[in-house]
Write a structure and sequence with these properties.
Alpha-Beta Plaits; 6-stranded mixed beta sheet; 4-stranded antiparallel beta sheet; 42% helix
């Protein structure tokens, strides 16, 4: 059994789904399915009871749990951003093409949407309907869950959207658009929309939007500019983005650095327990953060801008550490 239940919210949903689809679960079998200890399972059962679910339990060698049938299903106690994260992740799993992952994800999505409050359910359904996520999403950069939900609902309801937008140059403009699709590419969200003032299709980074407001009037949908919106956005990014080629040698094992960087960097083992990290990045903030988190000495090989940023950050931290508490 693949153990993916480290996230408590995801584990609670999985536990609830198992109890709903099975008359009686022996405690050991249920803990094994979730990949947790019997003690953790008991805590999760108690949490579901606090949320209003009636669950019978028996002790002993044949002990287990059973969800009592009948009664109204309580609302799932999740924060809006937790719901958005679950919907995005499950939608990406459905679209992944992996049958063993897609089929249960459809079931899980259906169950999640059924037990949400009405307003949150409508926005979650809209997000599911208009989102293109070619793979499971990472943590989004600076995009509140309510903003994603609002934009998704405007896309689904074909309602025009007004917002302020900050370009790469720092220029701020007011935009009025017909929103069509949300596309997730790793840590970034993009809105594909028809810009009314420019009479052309545009792609907007959602973390650069400010104060999106849906208009009262609807619009008649136009044919999308491409059948491959993901490819269109990636082509646009590559044509305008200047990437920094980062090379750093660290006094740390390759597996330690790889665990900290994930798929965002290539890590090559060197002699004496050292390694070389390389990555292409639009911003030097990310490699700086990685180097700060990893507890190891390092040497910046390239670019010079990163070496200067490291020195400046070190001086600032040193000055701050000298201040009395």
């Amino acid at each position: 059994m693949l153990k993916i239940m480290a996230n408590p919210s995801a584990r609670m949903l999985r536990l609830l789904g198992l109890l709903q689809n099975h008359r009686f679960w022996p405690g050991g079998s249920l803990a094994d399915r979730l990949g947790v200890s019997p003690r953790t399972l008991r805590r999760d059962i108690d949490q579901l009871r606090l949320l209003g679910y009636t669950i019978d339990s028996t002790t002993g060698s044949n002990g287990g749990y059973q969800l009592v049938a009948g009664g109204q299903m309580p609302l799932l106690a999740l924060e809006p951003d937790e719901v958005i994260a679950l919907v995005v992740g499950l939608t990406a799993a459905v679209n992944s093409g992996i049958t063993d992952l897609a089929d249960p994800s459809v079931t899980a999505l259906t169950k999640v949407l059924q037990v949400l409050p009405a307003e949150l359910r409508h926005r979650s359904e809209a997000l599911r309907a208009v989102t293109i996520a070619p793979r499971p999403a990472d943590d989004p950069e600076g995009v509140p869950a309510e903003v994603l939900g609002l934009i998704a609902q405007a896309c689904r309801d074909t309602v025009r959207l007004r917002f302020g937008y900050t370009a790469r140059t720092g220029a701020v403009t007011a935009r009025s658009v017909e929103p069509y699709r949300l596309v997730n590419l790793g840590r970034r969200w993009y809105l594909v929309a028809y810009d009314m003032d420019r009479s052309d299709w545009r792609t907007f980074r959602v973390d650069r939007l400010a104060d999106p407001v849906p208009a009262r009037n609807t619009f008649t949908p136009r044919p999308l500019p491409s059948d491959d919106l993901v490819g269109m956005i990636r082509s646009g990014i590559e044509s305008v983005t200047v990437l920094h080629e980062v090379v750093v040698e660290l006094e740390a094992a390759a597996e330690v650095v790889a665990a900290a960087t994930g798929r965002w960097a290539t890590v090559e083992a060197l002699e004496s327990g050292r390694c070389r990290m390389t990555m292409s990045t639009e911003s030097l903030d990310w490699p700086l953060q990685v180097l700060t988190v990893i507890d190891a000495e390092f040497k910046v090989i390239a670019p010079a801008e990163l070496a200067r940023l490291v020195r400046a950050t070190g001086r600032r931290l040193t000055r701050s550490s000298r201040q009395p508490p």
